[in-house]
Amino acid sequence: MKNQVETIDCIRIRNRTRTQENEVVATESNLALYVDDAFVTEFQYSTGLDDCLVYGHLLTSGRISNKKEIKSLIIDGVECRVNLANRITPRIYQVNKQKFVTFDKILEIRDLLLENQTHHRATRGFHGAVLYDLSTDQWFACEDIGRHNAVDKVIGHGMKEDYTLTDSVLLLSGRLLSNIVSKGILSGIPVISSMTVSSNEGIQISRKHNRTLIGCLSDEGCWLYHEGVIKIILE
Q: Tens digit of pLDDT for each residue in 179-221?
């Protein structure tokens, strides 16, 4: 398996002086996905957790609603071929239980993500995501060169390991664009948060599906773009 980072000899200009230095950079790999022998997409991604990436993409794109709908999954080099048990229409999970999560817990989840961004600290070239199951305190974090891939990987891991996605928090380092927020919605996740901002469409779809959407998360506070079925307790 290819390493996720590589050291490359480069010219560094600092204070108008050139020096020859080694730079640690993210490596990029490709994986083509075929579903029932039809080409679906090609991932530009960081190697590792390849099966979680595919599981998560299938779930967050609405192709499956649970792992039992995957009949077979084979990864061979730069190709992944999946056969599904049956075709379904995208399912939007309804999260109806009225619950709450404390702001301090959201910050704890953020800290888990920050502690597990070693490649990003080394290269500044990775996005991160963490999935936290509030009902069991299980969590999983990962990094990838693509923010969509990082989200798919943690959600795919959660589905494989039977996390209660409808009682989980998804927290990421990248922007909350509509296609990212949709991944959380299609997975049934009720709280979607980020250390940076949302777009208008990301906010609109969170409101449409009554999901709690948090942006610009920091120790000082956040933007609570929409407070959905899970409420944020400040005390």
A: 999 999 999 999 999 999 999 999 999 999 999 999 999 999 9
What are the beta bridge partners of residue 100?
231
- pLDDT for position 102: 95
Q: How far is CA 117 from CA 149, 162, 165, 188, 191, in A?
A: 15, 24, 23, 25, 21
Q: Which residues contact 217 (CB under 8 A, 6 or more apart)?
A: 106, 107, 110, 171, 193, 194, 195
Q: Are strands 5-14 and 17-26 parallel, antiparallel or unpaired?
A: antiparallel
Task: Say how far residue 58 (Cα) sits from the centre of its chain.
Answer: 13
Question: In the chain, what are the domains?
Answer: 29-84 (3.10.20.10), 99-233 (3.40.140.10)
Identity of the amino acid at 99:
K
Distance of alpha carbon 218 from alpha carbon 13, whole angstroms: 33
Contacts of 138 (CB under 8 A, 6+ apart): 132, 161, 163
How far is C-alpha 215 from the geometric centre of its chain's CA atoms?
15
Question: CA-to-CA distance for 2 and 59, rounded, in angstroms?
Answer: 26
